[in-house]
Amino acid sequence: MQGVLDEQVRLRHLLDAMVAIASELTLDGVPTRIVRAASNLVGARYAALGVLTEGPDRVLRTFVHHGMGSDVVAQIGDWPAGHGLLGQLIDEPRPLRLRDIAAHPASYGFPEHHPVMTSFLGVPVRTREHVFGYLYLTDKEGGQDFTEVDELVAVALAAAAGVAIENATLYEEAERRQAWLSATVEITSLLSEDTPTDRALQAVADRARSVSGADVAWVVSGSDPQDLHLEVVAGAPVDREAMHALPMEKSLASLVVRTGLPVSVDDLATDPRAVDPSSLDDWPQLGPMMALPLRSGSGIEGVISLAWTPERIDAFRRLDPRLPTSFAEQAALALQVARSREDRKRMSLLEDRDRIGRDLHDLVIQRLFGVGLGLDSTVRMVPAGEPARRLRQAIVDIDDTIKDIRRAIFALGALEGSTDLQTEIEILVDRAAATMKLRPKLRLEGPIRTTVPASVTPDLLAVVGEALTNVSRHAHASTVEVRVIVDHDTLEVIVADDGLGMPQDVLESGLHNMRERAAGHGGELVIESEAGTGTTLTWRVPLVDGGSTIQGG
């Protein structure tokens, strides 16, 4: 009678434990509830629950124990590796009940400082065909063996645990889906505002990394597999020069752009198709990675990559790739809308600039030209002397003003951020004006943009910059003029000032470099200078190669 009453009590406790376990929605509290309930229900001194990863390796993701003190656990060290009896439970998921652990052929022994255990009861934690892990109990109280009833109780408890773990997994998956949806809404909302593209890309990388739990995320831009650039990074230091030096044309991103399909790898370092950004300074060592296409209605505009450190491969395997793939597609559409908005704004700006340029050309320049013609007629009727000289100077000033207005008209038509040669020269002169007490006068003559070849451009800019630096440091001039002239097959850079002039024994360091740059193109450097009268520097190179003029773009 007492035995029947005990069984009824144990059955009631089992039902209470199953209800309590089933009420958990997260994996945080489930393992602890299971091991405590199992230890009490079957009278085991020690109990443990191991939850396995989803990948093919099936290693431990979570391991919770009951019955051992924290000092003993600290001395034992690492979790079980899944060998011996535990490995057999993983490979053959069915109940295993033993009188003596050491007597079983698969017994692997205990690590140092591990308490000695004798009787053993192990059952798989599963639902249908999916095995989540294993529950095992050792050392039945009173030195007895585990009974068939104990095994039934453990199996029932493990089944409840399997359902609870599956529910918790589904709940986590639902939360992850909600997080990805929220991230998509956030990115769409951000891009619906007036957000620059670079900030938008950074936001995409930041949110993708945060929601996926990845250690590093980065975005590669471009629709040509041979012309891709690593643009933004989340979770690692940013060195743009080093990032742009990575050979992205031979990377997984290039493969994604070519095929339009997402790619996942377990280890970047060993995959021959991958470019491992772990080589960049201060980046963590990366292992698993997934690369997802940023696909819009017009095609693939880039790739977003998510990567984890090798020890966090389970987080990579738990991520459903459909969620970040959908996020990447929505982000790409939002980026396309943002770029279209920027294009419309740029077009509107260029239309306004074009209207201003037409007004300057058709009205202002024509009126100045008419004034100049009138003054030219007048100067012929004025006797030689100071009035005539002033009239001729006014005509020259009007002509210079017309050239300045024409240059401004051309600048109005240029896109912001353009790097054409004329713009670069103007930037150098503006930069020099910021350090001088005066503004150099700039004259650009001839088809500079279309005639100066790319091979000459770096030396031309270097000469202009060096010459203006010398004037700023040594000349003490009140006027400076820079002229860049393209005349048929010759390029001339003339920098003239009215400063102190050069001493006879001047040490040529920067001047020597200018001579070398001229000689490299078959040209020359000519310096005309006298004390107190200023200096005129002429850097002259031919624009011919094999008898034909070199046309630059």
From TrEMBL:
The keyword Kinase applies. PROSITE patterns: HIS_KIN (PS50109). Residues 460-545 form the Histidine kinase domain. Gene3D superfamilies: 1.20.5.1930, 3.30.450.40, Histidine kinase-like ATPase, C-terminal domain (3.30.565.10). It comes from the Bacteria. Keywords: Kinase, Transferase, Two-component regulatory system. InterPro entries: GAF (IPR003018), GAF-like_dom_sf (IPR029016), HATPase_C_sf (IPR036890), HATPase_dom (IPR003594), His_kinase_dom (IPR005467), Sensor_HK_TwoCompSys (IPR050482), Sig_transdc_His_kin_sub3_dim/P (IPR011712). It holds the Pfam family GAF_2. The keyword Transferase applies. This is GAF domain-containing protein.
